[in-house]
Structure formats: C-alpha cells, structure tokens
Amino acid sequence: MRKLLPALVYFLLAGLSLAQQLAEESIVINVEVPVRVFKGSRFIDNLTLNDFEIYEDGKLQKLEAVYLIKKRAVERRDEIQRFAPQTARSFYLFFEVSEYTPKMGEALEYFIHNVIMPGDNLTIISPMKTYRLKQKAFEARSRKEIVARIKGILRRDSLIGSSEYRGVIHELEDMAKAMAVGITSSSAPETAARTGSQITTSTSGLAQWVMGTEDVVQYQDFRFDDMLNRYAEALGRLDNLRSVDQKQLLNFSKVLKEEQGQKYVYLFYQREFVPKIDPKILYQYIESFQDRPDIAQTVQGVFEFYRREVPFDVNLVKKSYADSSVGIHFLLISEPPPRIEGVQLQEQSEDIFSAFSEMALATGGYAESSGNPVYLMKRAVEASENFYLLYYTPHPYLKDGKFREIVVKVKDRDYRIVHRLGYFAN
Fold first, then answer.
1. Which of helix, strand or coil describes residue 221?
2. Do residues 173 and 259 share a domain?
3. Whole-angstrom distance, CA of residue 165 vs CA of residue 163
4. In a domain, 403, yes or no
5. How many other β-carbons are positioned within 10 Å of the β-carbon of residue 263?
6. Residue 109 is part of a domain; what is its CATH number?
C-alpha cells in the first residue's frame, strides 16, 4: 500500500487541478467596452452591431450587444442578448496645480452649469483635500452659489497646499540669480571659481540689477560651491514634492473599479518650470575644479534632475486603469513661463505629460495641453458624452489574472476608434 500512496496522491491532485480548470473555463463573464468612433473630430453615431468587430488577445469574439449612449440616455439598442447598461455618471475633477487662476474658475463654472445633472456624482480633489458634492447641495443652493463655493475652496487649497512647492521654486530662482552674479562679477569666471570667490556685486549690468533685489542679497557672502550644493539640495526637495506615488495611483484605480456606471476623471495639471543655472556656468565650474570629484558629482546630479525620467511604471498603471473601465482625460494647463532676468526656466512637465497621456489613451480617454482651462474642460466633456457600449462574452475564458488586450474595429471604415486597452482576468 505504501508504494501505491504517491501515485494515488498524484492522481487525486491531478483530478482536483482538472476540476478547477474546468470550473474556471465554465465561468461566464460579460465584458463591457465603452467605445468612441470619430471621423476627424466628428463623432459617428449611426453604427450598428454588425459594423463592429472586437478582438481579445488577437482572437475574434462574438459581439452580443451594442448600445448608443448620449450623456446618460440609451439612444439606440442593438442586441442578440439583452443587457442593462449602467449609465449613471461619476465625475472626478483633479486639480494638481500650484496656483489658482480665474480661468480655472471659468472651467468649473462651465462644468457645473452645463455638464453635471441630477443623479450624477461629483468629487473634487484639490491640492489639499477631497470633496464629494452631495445631491442635496443642488437642492439647497443655486448652481451659482455652488460655483462660488467651489472656486473659493480651490483658490484657498491651491494657495495653502502648494505653498511649500512655490517656496522651493522661489528659492531656486534666487540662487540661480546669485550664481549668475557670482560668475559675471569676476572678470574671469575661471579665476572666480579657482579662488572660491564670494557672490559679490560688481560693475556688471546684470550683477548690479540682480544684487539690487532683496531676495538675492541674502546670498552675497556665500561661496559659489556652497551655493551649488544648496541649489542641488533644493532640487532634491522639489523632486520629493512632485513625486508620484505609484501605490496610491494603483489604489485609486481599485476604488474606481468598484464604482458602478460610467466613470470619468478630469486631471488638470499645471505646466512646471524649474529655475535653471546656465549650463555654460556649470561646465566652466567643472573645468576649473578637475581635481575635485565631489564638485563634478554635484554638477552631474543637477544635470540628472534636468533629465527626469517617468516616476512610475507606466505600463502597470495604465493597465490597472484600463481594467477599472474609467475614462481619464489628462489636461495640461500650458501657460507660458514668467520672465526672470538672469535665470533660464526649463519646463519640467514632460515626464508627467508623457506618462499620464499614455494612461489616458489606455482608458479610452483624452490628453491635450492648452493655456486655456475652459477649452480643455469643453474638449474633455465632448470626449465623454457620446459613446457606444459594446458587450461580449470572452471565449475561451480562463481566470488566470493575466491582462487581456482588447481591439475594436469598424468593418471597412477608416475611422478613429478610442476604447480601453483591456482588462485583468481575475
């Protein structure tokens, strides 16, 4: 009997595994895919079930229903099997901004007066807090009063919540000015670097202008190498302030997945500029201290910050949000940089813009930049209100936790088609 025991255990386990696999394969799930079809910028609203093809991991699937949705109304049904589309809407307005502007208020005003409807859910995320607008608010107050209230909250939270960020930016501006003066105040920059000269006034026009301002006078007795170290340390603090927490991003996608109905995230992100030291000054400084590897390392760290990489795993995050079936619209407020004498302002939004644009497109959303938040809001609304809901039952389906990639096509038509990337089979 002992010799037969291993074989018996093996067959029992094999039978259990087979039963589990058969049970998983017998699971019937229905996948819902919001789809938008455009010819140029015009939404195409006359398509039927027979016009669409849908593929999962490259395999053609059988479509079972197509519904045309406008705002929250089911305008047309085309069904083999009947479904009950959830058209209730939840909106999330994110304002990742360092400074409130009147145009942001106008964008909010447009949304409250023209988009939100009774029964819709609205959540506003400011630089400080999250606010959920209850339905009773529309019964107790006029829309004009609600707009005024939200504007006040956003103005206050932007001022307080981003005060540390703005403080670091101003600090970097002052140091960049002072270091420009430290070079121009000497007849030979190399000599100034070799002697470790202090940041002092000179006959230079730039130096006279800069050193005449109170915000830079505080650095006039600092050595250039001390200033550079302080500047690098401030860059590190700025990096921490604008870091994106991947865990929080993934957790938010899980929260959204549990929401019923159609979900939309409008993420307003303000264009960022970092006060930059003229690279010529830094290269001159390295050449003057070739025997000081610590200085070369500090300068290299500064250059590395200027070339920031994407701060999270874009592929993982975009799949997680596609799985949540949420439409993300990434809206970059691209205002021009301020003019500051003696300082170069380098845009530092490219890493965020590329990452969040990918995430938006993976959810069937929209990404654009403009200096006008009202325009961005209107474009995002247009991209949210009209769509098709496609339903199919994946075949074969195996609950293995892997990501299933979805591709939707319109037969024999050269249309632009927007939809979520796929879902996790879990």
1. coil
2. no
3. 5
4. no
5. 21
6. 3.40.50
Residue 423 one-letter amino acid? Y
Q: Which residues lie below 8 Å from residue 361, measured CB to CB, with a gap of 6+?
A: 367, 418
Paired tokens of 29: 């799930």
Q: Is the pLDDT of residue 377 over 50?
A: yes
Comparing 343 with 424, which gets the higher pLDDT? 424
Q: Could you tell me the two tokens for 292?
A: 């000081």
Tokens of 376: 């961005």
Give per-residue pLDDT as tens, 257-273. Answer: 999 999 999 999 998 88
Predicted confidence (pLDDT) per residue in 90-101, tens digit: 999 999 999 999
pLDDT tens sequence across 50-88: 999 999 999 999 999 999 999 999 999 999 999 999 999
> Residue ranges of the alpha helices (H) in 242-390?
246-258, 279-288, 293-306, 314-323, 350-362, 373-385
The end-to-end CA distance of the chain, in Å, is 41
Q: What is the pTM of this model?
A: 0.82
Chain mean position to CA 97: 12
**Which is more confident, 363 or 234?**
363
Among 259, 194, 265, CA closest to 223: 194
Q: How many domains does the chain have?
A: 2
Helix axes 224-241, 163-184, angle to 10 degrees: 160
Domain that residue 144 falls in? 89-164+239-387
Q: Which two tokens stand for residue 126?
A: 């400011």
Q: Are residues 244 and 328 in the same domain?
A: yes
**β-bridge partners, 263:** 90, 326
Closest CA relative to residue 383, chosen from 38, 33, 31, 32: 38
Tokens of 338: 């301020």
Distance from C-alpha of 217 to C-alpha of 47, rounded to nearest angstrom? 68
Q: What angle do CA 378, 382, 385 make, to 5 degrees?
A: 130
pLDDT: which is higher, 253 or 24: 253
